[in-house]
Design brief:
The chain has 301 residues and is an alpha/beta fold. The chain contains twelve helices and 14 strands. The strands form four sheets. The protein has a seven-stranded parallel β-sheet, with helices on both faces. The chain has a three-stranded antiparallel β-sheet with strand order 7-6-8. Strands 3-4 form a two-stranded antiparallel ribbon. The protein is globular and about 55 Å long.
Length: 301
Amino acid sequence: MKVVLLSGGVGGARFADGLARLVRADDLAIIVNTGDDFVHWGLHVAPDLDTVMYTLAELSDDVRGWGLADERFRALAMVERYGGEAWFQLGDRDLATHLMRTEALRAGQTLSQVTARLARALGIGPAVVPMADGLRPTWIETEGHGVLPFQHWFVARRAAPVVRGVRFFGPAAPAPAVIPAIDAADVVLIAPSNPWVSIDPILALDGVCEALARRLVVAVSPIVHGRAIKGPLAGMIESLAGEPASAAAIARHYGPLLGGFVLAEGDGAPGRIRAVDIVMADRAGRVRLAGEVLSFAESLL
Ligand code: FO1
């Protein structure tokens, strides 16, 4: 099967890692949210792309979920000493990625081109595709703190301000490989990522929903028994959808786009829904979940 995965950061990266062990590299493309990208210390930082790349290359810090394992933060300490911005923790080895990316972008390469080159250098087989080559930042409308750029809300303010809306700025053109990858896919999987800030930025690009409407789309719930596996999603469902966090709220959010939905056992009824253990506690868990989602998708084709 030719598989496309729409992915955000940690949850998507772990699911991608499971898929990459089951699907031939040539048959798997991972389209990654770049709405969280921002310029920090003059460098283009792409957190979700890097989380996916580091996880697939087995270089990621498994406890934090983002950044590299065995990381040190000596450059950060020096920046702090100079009185620079130290609220976003860029590790010493992680800095190399941002330096290489920024240098290539300044030399005229696209984000798609430099990402493909970095992923190849890390020995990653599947295509890692940024959702857009242009800057398309996500901003968060908050209660009482105005409209904040994503990382200022998520990291600097620890996702504490209540979310009233999510906005995407900049050109809505998808990267050149996005629509052709979807058109060529037998199934498009939506990772257990945050629908509002990780997946919607991809869905909001020109032509993506139209392309998805022609394909079988299967999403994996990021909510298990009413709680988010990671991050601020549960509170966002309450403030944005006006209902308690549940797998059903996620399915309702994606609506008619979905041809199938995978959720945790005990979280919903069978049908075009498959209930499995969706917590990826370790690598075996990632591969097991990816296998269950693939066989479910196959049964729907
Ligand atoms: N998340 C944090 O909560 N605090 C950080 O200081 C932080 C630094 C960081 C550096 C590089 C990187 O690739 C990711 C980083 N993240 C950090 C994670 C990131 O902000 C979020 O996980 C994603 O943007 C949400 O998907």
